[in-house]
Please model this.
Amino acid sequence: MWLDAGPWSALPANAHLIAISVFGGYVLFGLKLAEHFMRAAADKMPLRRYVVCFTALFVVLPVLGGSMTAIYLMNGDKLSPILALQVGLTSPAIVQSLIIAAAHSMSKTAAPVARATQ
Model:
């Protein structure tokens, strides 16, 4: 089986840590949902938009938390259950910082913009 070799072999033995980080993603979803109810009525989006956003968050946040933990485990890092929960809670911030760093790096290597000739 393909999970028996390479970095994938760490995943079945640590499925409990992945489950804990998925739970952290659901906790983060609950915090986002609570944040919605704390907003003033003038600051809220239309109901349809919230349904779409929260449905996406309900799926994406736990998957993101579990994926980040799986990546750490495949890298050979040792995680405790509390650290797996923390990764599940902070995985959106981790991914956001990785995207910003990649964009910043790409902007430095991009070709300069030509000025208009006068």
Summary: The chain has one domain: 7-109. Residues 7-109 form one domain. The chain has a mean pLDDT of 83.
